[in-house]
Structure formats: structure tokens, C-alpha cells
Amino acid sequence: MFRFLLKRILSTLPVMLIVAVLVFMMLRLTPGDPAAIIAGDAASPENIAKIRESFGLDRPLVVQFGIWFGNLLTGNLGESYYFKKTVVELIAQRIEPTVALASLTILIAVAVAVPLGVLAAWRMGGWLDRALMGFSVMGFSIPVFVFAYILIYIVSLKLNLLPVQGYKRIGEEGFWEFLRHLILPSITLSVIYIALIARVTRAAVSEVLTEDYIRTARAKGLPEMKVLWRHAFANAAVPIVTVIGIGIALLIGGVVVTESVYGIPGLGRLTVDAVLARDFPTIQGVILLFSFVYVLINLLVDLSYVLLDPRIRY
Amino acid sequence: MKSHQPWRRYLAPAMAALLCAGAVMLPQGAAAQEKVLKVIPHSNLAILDPIWTTQYMARNHGYMIYDTLFGTDEKGQIKPQMVEEWTVSPDNRLWTFKLRKGLEFHDGKPVTGEDVNASLTRWGKRDAMGQKLFTFIDRLDSPAPDTFRIFLREACGIVLESLGKPSSNVPFIMPKRVADTPADKQIEEYIGSGPYVFKRDEFKPGEKAVYTKFAKYVPRKEPPSGTAGGKVVYVDRVEWNLALRDAQGQVNALSKGEVDVLEQPAFESYAALKTDPNVEIVNKNPVGFEYMLRFNFLHPPFNNAKVRQAALAALTQEPFLKAQVGIKEYYRSCASMFGCNTPYGVTKGSDVQVKGSIAKARELLKASGYNNEKIVIMKPTDLAQITKLPDVAAQLLRQAGFNVDLQAMDWNTVVSRRAKKDAPANGGWNIFATSWVVPDIWNPLSNAAVGTAGEKSWFGWPTDEQLEKLRDQFAREIDPAKKKVITEAIHARAFEVGTHAPLGEFINPAAVRKGVITGLVTGPGDFYWNIKKK
Fold it and tell me: Which residues of A touch B245 (CB under 8 A)?
């Protein structure tokens, strides 16, 4: 296990290096000048040139990369051209809303999707199964922002139950305000993940339900719920955990629409703002962070197989 | 029998603990007595130095925390603000200003002449009108703490207009130690003497900006008008919501009372806002904005004045305004490059556009020798306020016989590309569209588009010696009546040269909570003094 872990950690390094080089080059090659946008509409060419110089953008690409990469090795992601804060500070400020939103979304998605998927597999062909399949098609088809507007209209504007927008940090106005502001965005975002996880759960469990050991468990007289959860679900867990892991990874980068509609100042919005402003240090820092998170989640998913399936050993 | 789910026995106590913790962490209501004004500004606030950048959000941030020597009222007149009184020598070369009593920075230090001089010097290095003013200035000094003097090499007619300039870059007054920051670097401290204090510890870029009332601010006694008059603050705190950028989300938030002011709603939102009983539409900027289309003088075909005239004839204003704004009462055609109902709102020479038509344009284009060169028009897809203008321009110019290549890109690419002098086929451009708040373009010096100093001019780089001479005359002329005559000559020449195509004016009224918010100040920007919240 230790060797497996070491190997995986070491293999992260070339991945991160490739990501660093690729993102750096792609940004420099796309059209757009951060100095021009920062200077404003009435700025003179001289002012723009001075701003570009202050950012070091007039230096050769190799020099720019060397400076940035050298700083990166010491944990310095640079300073945002746009916000005049270090990238680390910006990420630290924005990570909480995204993690909170993503966590609650996955919690809701797993809590709803897994039982539904198991039940659908148990009663395959029945009304629950058909309803779930219909719902999952809807979940995949309706764009997130459409669902968001519908929820806001009904729950916030008409029923006046929850706020329309915003994010409240726990330390600012307490846990309940924090939760109130996250409920609608999380439900909105969870729909597609409920659809995805439920379908995979249904497929995995339905396959396991045809196994001999399930027939044996039933023949032994075990309660049906125990057969479902202790035997069927436990053995179907590997693909389910895999898709949950993929979902978490996708969530981190996929929250931007939800953050935009609900006005949540998370990493998704930071990325979009940074891209539109050509804020190279911020874009580079955020993408490196996302890459690291993807790699970490993949590792955690792989490690979870050991817990779920005693036959798997590294 | 032993439970195989031992965690169940801990579930109830855990839930109880969670609820208790939640109850303990409920807001205590300490801030309940504070009057907090919640605003959704028109854009994100990122740059906090309003001298370093011309972005309007930085300007608005500046008006919150800084004050100005002079202001511009809603009629466009220059009025004293920080200045108590001033004298001018008989030869108009020595201007002596005395500051009002009681002016103090947020750190408790008094505002002095030295602070003023340092602030003006820094501003004069960045702002176009300031740069022009400083070509006349010999030196500045401060013979007494509450006095500063401007010594001119020769008399000029733009001293007060420059010092009272309402829009970017505004000559905000900062402490000397801050204003001594080199003009090519951003300031690091945000201390002013304005009606609000910037809460830097609560500023979260892309999330919120917070300002609190400056208790020691001494407002003028006159009623507020534009950037002039008394800046009395009736709320304790102003919060700018920088996170909510979705237009529908903004409307929903205002409707539900989660925010108090929506600075500049999207045009598509007005239909819903007008029917909402909780919302009131307030036109606080009747002078409004002006659209324009800019030509690139460096490359064919717009290096040919006759081709530019043909284009002007095709680019009549109504189609642009109808497509982009859509709400009849929110736009108007305006034949002046310097805005309508403004101090210099003349229209001489504008017939080529005002009386233009597609037929006329075709005729002019044929006579110009146009060789079917392709015209690259840049279309920003992510700037709702101007995104439709290039489509209309492309259509009208095609109808007139131009060969048009409409290229879609994001605004940042437009901004980067318009700074390039390359040929359009090599990453350059022929036309781009933009908008200005009218005070930015309402006189021949502040209007960057009528500058014709070639490579030193604003993007497009027109060259015309005659126009530059007229602008210089304008700067030197002291008599207001003669300045108006010079302005007419400038206007006529600008149309003759075809510096750009003005595309009409529009307003973008604010939306506020009805019955809750009153007192929005009328003027050429977004100001948050004088506002009362019930």
C-alpha cells in the first residue's frame, strides 16, 4: 500500500508539470491583452505599454515561464493582475463557497440517488424504475440555469421560503444563514448528479442482483432490505463510488453556472472573471489547483476500493 | 443482539448537538440597527486606483472615498467643492485657491495644499485633459496649509473644467504620501477625504466592497447636484454586491428586497422591472451615454476621407438605438459628438450623417474610389451594452456597398486588438464600437475620439493638423462665447475628417426598492450620498 501511494504521489508531479506548461503556453497564445483591459477605454498606448511592462509581459516567454515556475516551486502562485491580491489569497477567499456548495450538492445527490437507484434496481420495470429513468433523462436534459430560475421563481419569489441569491459565510451570520443560502443552489446543481448516480447505481445493483450469492442470501431467509444493502449494494459499490468521484471532480470545475445565477463568489466565477480579464496568474493558479484536486480525488477513489472490495489490494 | 450499525445510537445526540451549535451561531442582531444600503453596481470592482485606470467602477469607487476640488452639477456647470474661494490674476496666469475649513482625511489628518498639488501632479500624468492642462502649468505651490496655487506659463481656458472634470480620470484628492506613488504604479492605500471610508478589511474582490459613513465629513451646504453640492450621507454603510452578475438574478434580488439599488439593469430587464410593484425606475443620469463607431485611419479603406464620409452617410443612428436599446423613451438620436443638452453640444457639420441614407452612401462610396477592400468589424459577444451595434453597422455598410467581415470575439480581445496597428488581415481592425458616459466626451479636449495627433491619438490614430490646432485654441481660449465658436469649428472639422460616427444617446435608469429608497442624486455617474433608506 505504501509503495502504491508513493508511486501515485510521484506520478502526480509530471502530470502537474505538463498542466503547468500547457496552461501557460495556451494563455500566452490566445488573443487578449490584460494590460489593455485594465487600463480602461480611454487609456493611451503609452499607459498600456507601461502596464504591460509592470506585469513583465514584455519579457520573452521563456523568461516569463521561468519566473513563474520558479515561484511556483516555492508555493508562490503570483499576484493577480486584476485584483492586486496574491493568487493564493484569492483562492483562499473563494474556495470556501465552492467547497461548501460542492459538498452539500454531493451530499444531497448521494443521499437521494443511491437509495433511489437501489430501489429502482430492486423493482426493475416497475413504476419507480420508470419514474426514475424519466427523471434522470430530465435531469440530463434541462440546463442547470433553467432549473435554477424555476426553483428561484417558485421557492424564493412566490413562496418566499429561501433567498434568491448570495452566499453567507458561517462566521459572518451563523450556520442557519449559511445553510439557507446554499439550499437552492445545491438542489439545483444536484439534479444532474442525482440523475447520473441513480442510473449508475441502478445498473450496478441490477447486475449484482442476478448473482448466485444473492439467491443464496434470499434462500437463507435474510430480510430483503438486508439482501439489498448488505449484499447487493456492498458488491455494487465500486462503480458507484467511481462515478461519485468523477462527479466530485466535475463539480469543482462545473459550478460556474450555478455560482453565476445565485451570485456565489466561488472558484468557478473567479475562473470565468479571470479568463475574461486575461488574468494569467489567477487562471494558471486555479487550473493547477483543479488539476491537483482531480488527481487527489482519483487517488481517494482508488483507495476506497480497498475498503469496499477486500479482493482489491495494492 | 449487537447492532451492526453502531453509528445509529449516536445519531440523535449528534443532531441535537448540531442544532445547538447552529442556534448558538445564529446572528445576534448586533448590526440590526445599522442602515445598510445594498447596491448591485454595473460591473465588478477590481482596480482601486481611479487615477491609474479609466474604468468607471474605479471612478465610482473614487467618488465614495475621495473628494474633488470642484464638481460638475447636473446642468454641466463647474462648482466649487473642496475649494472655498479662489482668485485669478488679471493676466489669468496665477490661480490661487483656498480650501474649505474642516476638510480631513479618513486617518484624521487635515487636507492641505501639499496634498492637492501632489494629487493633481499624479492625475496630470495619466489623464488626457490633465496632460493638456499641465502643458500650460509652470509650477504648483502651497504658501499656506489651506492654500494652493497654480502658476501658468500662459493663460488657458481649461483650469476649472479640468479640476471639475466629472468622469475618468477624475482629479481626486489623496494624501501626499499616497499621491506621490509613481503614476505608472497603483496606489496601495485608499485614504480619502470623501463622505465614505473604504473598509479594506471587508473588501473581497468579486464578492463585495464595503463603505462606511465618514462621520467627520463636512458637506457643503448647497443641495446635491451631480458631483457638486452637499454630499450628505444618511446611511451607515454601503455594500456593493460584486458577485451577482446575472441579469435575471439581479432583478430577482431587487424584487425580493435582498438588494436596494440596481445601478444599471440590462435593457431586457426593464419590462419586468416596470411591472413590479416593489420596484421604482429612477433616471438619475439624464445626460446619459453616447455610442460611437471608430474607424482605423491607418489602413484602407478608411485611410481615405471620402470613404469615411460614405460610411457616415450610411451609419444613421436610429437603427443602432432601436436594435441595441429598444426602449423608445430610453434613447434619442443626437447629432452632436459632444452630447446633446450639454455645455458644448453643437451640431455643426453633422449633416453628412443626420441627412444620410443608404442611397447617399452608395453614391459617395462610388465617387470615393473604394476598391472593395474588406472591412473588419469587431463584435464583442460578452458586453451586452454594445454587442448589437456591430451587427447593425455590418448590415448598413453592406447595404451601402461595403465588403464587410464581421468578426465575433470577447471584449478583452477587442480591447487588445484595437491597440494593434497591424493591417486588418494581420490581426488588426477597421471598425470597433464603444460607449461613453456623455461627460467623458462632452468637450473637445476630454473627447478622445476627436484627438487627431496621429500615432499619439486614441485607437484609430487619425491625423489632422487643423483639428489639433483648433483643439489647442480651445484650450487657450478664456472667453466662454469664443470657446463655443471654436467648438463649432472643431465639430464641423471632425465630421469632415470623419474621426468617428456618433451613434446616438441612451439612458440606463437605475431600479430601486419602491418606497424604501429615495434621494438618488442626478448627475453623470452613480453616487451614493443623499440616499435615504426607510
Answer: 260, 263, 269
Quick check: A165 and B54 CB within 8 A? no
Residue A310 pLDDT grade (very low, low, confident, very high; cuts 50, 70, 90): confident
A15 — pLDDT class (breaks 50, 70, 90): confident
Q: With beta carbons under 8 A apart, name residues in chain A contacting B27.
A: 173-174, 177
Q: Using CB atoms, which residue from B206, B252, B413 is nearest to A270?
A: B206
Q: What is the pLDDT of residues B452-489, one digit of tens each?
A: 999 889 999 999 999 999 999 999 999 999 999 999 99
Which residue in chain A is spatially nearest to B427 when comparing CA positions? A31
Asked if A84 has any chain B CB less than 8 Å from its own CB, the reply is: yes
Q: Give me the interface pTM, i.e. the ipTM.
A: 0.86
Instruction: Please state whether B222 falls in left (phi above 0), alpha (psi between -120 and 50) or beta.
Output: beta
Peptide bond into B241 cis (omega under 30): no
Given CB atoms, is A224 within the 8 Å cutoff of chain B?
no
Contact B256 A276 (CB under 8 A): no
Tell me how far apart the alpha carbons of residues B242 and B250 are, in angstroms, rounded to a whole number.
Answer: 11
Nearest to A261 among B58, B249, B410 (CB): B249
Identity of the residue in A42, A50, A177 whose CB atom sits nearest the CB atom of B27? A177
**Within 13 A of A122's CA, how many CA atoms are on the CB side?**
16
Q: With a threshold of 0.80, does the pTM exceed it?
A: yes
Lookup result for grid cell 454641466: B76
Q: Which helix (H) or strand (E) holds B271?
A: helix B270-275
Contact A54 B54 (CB under 8 A): no
Higher-confidence residue of A208 and B134: namely B134
Mean predicted lDDT score pLDDT of chain B: 92
